[in-house]
Amino acid sequence: MTQVDVAAFGRAWGRFESWLRANSPADRAALRRPAERERLVELESRLGFDLHPELRALLERHDGVAEAHAVPGPRGLPPAGAFLPSGHRLSGVDDIVTTYDVLVGVGEDNIDADLWEEDALAVNLDRCVPFALPNDGGVAFVDHRPGPSYGHVYEMGIGSGDLDGTLWATSLTELFRALAEALETDGPFLYYWPAPYTHESGHHFLEWQIRT
Question: Which CATH class is domain 6-210?
Answer without folding.
Answer: alpha beta
